[in-house]
Design brief:
The chain is of the alpha+beta class and about 325 residues long. Helices cover about 30% and strands about 30% of the residues. The protein has helices at about 15-30, 90-100, 110-115, 115-125, 145-150, 180-185, 230-235, 250-265, 300-305, 310-320, and strands spanning about 5-10, 35-45, 45-50, 55-60, 65-70, 70-75, 75-80, 130, 135-140, 155-160, 170, 190-195, 200-210, 215, 220-225, 240, 270-280, 285-290. A hairpin with a 5-residue loop joins strand 3 (about 45-50) and strand 4 (about 55-60). It is globular and about 65 Å long. Mean pLDDT is about 95; it is low at about 230-235.
C-alpha cells in the first residue's frame, strides 16, 4: 500500500510564498508511483490540503488527515518545507512528535537552535568553527552608531537573527545607514544580529545522512550580481551559481568535512545546506545552517544533487524510507 506523504508548506512569515514554491518543486521530484503525495498549506491555524488549483479541504489537526466524499485519508509522513516559523524553528516538529508522525528534517532542539542564527553560530564557535564577530539585539534594545562602528566596523551586515530568504537584510556601509537597517531587520523578527563583513568567496554545501548512506554534495559557488546574495539574487536570477565551485579539490574537501561534522554536532536529519565564506588564507567561515533549504527546481540542493550524479527522486525516497527502517 502506498504511503500518504504530506509536503507541508506555507507558514507564518514573509517566506510563505517561497515555501510554496519549494513545495511545488518537491511535488515534481517525488516518486508518484511509490507514494500518494499531497501539498498541505498552512498559515496560523488554517491548514488545508491543496487538491487542485481550485479545490482544497481542511486538515483535521486531531488526526493529521482529511476527509473527501466521506473517505478519510491520514498522512504517514510529513516532508516539512516551511522556511520560517513554525516549520523551521521546531514548533511543527513538536506537533508531529506528539502525533507520532515521522517527518523529513531534524527535531525540536536542532531546529530551534539553527533557526536562531546568532545562537547557532555561537554554539558552533565553541566547537572550533570560525564565524563572524557579531552583536545580538532584542526588541527594545538600543545600540549607538559608535558602538557598532567600534565593535563590528563598517561595512557590516544587519539582519534578522530569525528567518531567511534575505528578508530584512542590509549591507551597511555608512554610519547613517545603521539605525534604518536595524529598524528594517526588526520588522522581520524579534531579534537582530549585526555581523562583521567578510570579504571572500561565498560557497554553499548540501548534505544528508540516512542509516545506509552519508552524502555530502559538490559545492556551489555563489556570485551575486549586486552587493550580496539578497532576495533578487536568490529568486530572480541576479546571481551566478557555479556547481561545482571553482576552488581546489583540497579546499572543497575541507568544506565538505566541516559540513558533515556540523551535521553531526547539531544532530541534523534529512537534507541540510550550510553557507560559508572563504576569506584570505583559505579560511572557512560559517555563515548559517539551513535545515529546511529551498527545493525549487533551480534551488542549490537540486543543482548539487544533479552534480553528484544522484537521482533526486531516489534521494527523497531514501529520506522518507529512512524513518520507517530500524
Amino acid at each position: 500500500m502506498k504511503r500518504n506523504i504530506a509536503i507541508v508548506a506555507g507558514g507564518d512569515t514573509s517566506e510563505h510564498d517561497v515555501s510554496l514554491r519549494s513545495a511545488q518543486g518537491l511535488y515534481s521530484f517525488m516518486d508518484k508511483e511509490k507514494y500518494n503525495i499531497y501539498i498541505v498549506e498552512m498559515e496560523g491555524c488554517n491548514w488545508r490540503v491543496l487538491l487542485s488549483d481550485d479545490k482544497q479541504t481542511p486538515v483535521d489537526l486531531n488526526t493529521f488527515g482529511f476527509t473527501v466524499d466521506d473517505k478519510e485519508t491520514r498522512f504517514d509522513f510529513a516532508y516539512i518545507t516551511i522556511h520560517g516559523t513554525p516549520g523551521e524553528d521546531g514548533r511543527l516538529q513538536g506537533y508531529f512528535d506528539m502525533m507520532r508522525i515521522p517527518y523529513s528534517c531534524c527535531g525540536v532542539l536542532p531546529a530551534a537552535l539553527t533557526y536562531n542564527k546568532f545562537a547557532c553560530n555561537q554554539y558552533l564557535k565553541s566547537f572550533g568553527i570560525s564565524v563572524a564577530e557579531a552583536i545580538r539585539l532584542r526588541k527594545g534594545d538600543h545600540i549607538s552608531d559608535e558602538d557598532v562602528m567600534s565593535k563590528i566596523g563598517l561595512p557590516c551586515f544587519i539582519k534578522p537573527s530569525l528567518g531567511g530568504s534575505s528578508f530584512g537584510v542590509s549591507k551597511v556601509k555608512k554610519r547613517e545607514e545603521i539605525q534604518p537597517a536595524i529598524d528594517k531587520a526588526f520588522d522581520e523578527a524579534e531579534e537582530v544580529v549585526i555581523e562583521t563583513f567578510m570579504e571572500g568567496t561565498e560557497l554553499t554545501c548540501g548534505c544528508y545522512k540516512t542509516k545506509q548512506r552519508t552524502a555530502v554534495f559538490p559545492l556551489t559557488e555563489v556570485v551575486p550580481h549586486d552587493e550580496f546574495f539578497d532576495y533578487d539574487a536568490k529568486y530572480n536570477g541576479k546571481v551566478d551559481e557555479i556547481t561545482p565551485a571553482r576552488i581546489s579539490d583540497e579546499l572543497a574537501k575541507r568544506v565538505q568535512t566541516i559540513t558533515s561534522a556540523i551535521y553531526d554536532i547539531l544532530e541534523c536529519e534529512g537534507i541540510i545546506r550550510i553557507d560559508y565564506i572563504i576569506t584570505e588564507g583559505h579560511k572557512i567561515n560559517l555563515l548559517e545552517v539551513n535545515t529546511t533549504p529551498g527545493m525549487t527546481t533551480t534551488s542549490f540542493i537540486p543543482q548539487q544533487i544533479r552534480a553528484a550524479k544522484l537521482d533526486i527522486k531516489n534521494v527523497l525516497s531514501e529520506i522518507i524510507e529512512n524513518k520507517f527502517t530500524k
